[in-house]
Design a protein that fits this description.
Largest sheet: 2 strands, parallel
Helix content: 25-40%
Shape: globular
Oligomer: single chain
Radius of gyration: 13 Å
Strand order of the largest sheet: 1-2
Number of helices: 2
Distance between the termini: 13 Å
Length: 68
């Protein structure tokens, strides 16, 4: 499926927090990352946070599925 506002390229470094909008400070990203790692380790469920400025006119469900 082609999306108007393209999916970002695969990052070279994997993390649980991607802040393309520069909304979080480095300290906030680190704290959130640690909480997500702890949650993953204790539940075996992985959560990834992706903060973007816009998804264009795309449907959020389709955009999320393509992003995942």
């Amino acid at each position: 499926m082609f999306l108007q506002n393209g999916i970002p390229k695969k990052p070279q470094q994997e993390t649980s927090v991607y802040d393309y909008a520069n909304l979080l400070s480095d300290q906030e990203k680190d704290r959130l990352e640690q909480k997500l790692i702890y949650y993953s380790d204790s539940t075996s469920t992985q959560i990834v946070v992706d903060i973007m400025t816009s998804i264009g006119g795309n449907d959020i469900a389709m955009f999320g599925a393509e992003l995942g």
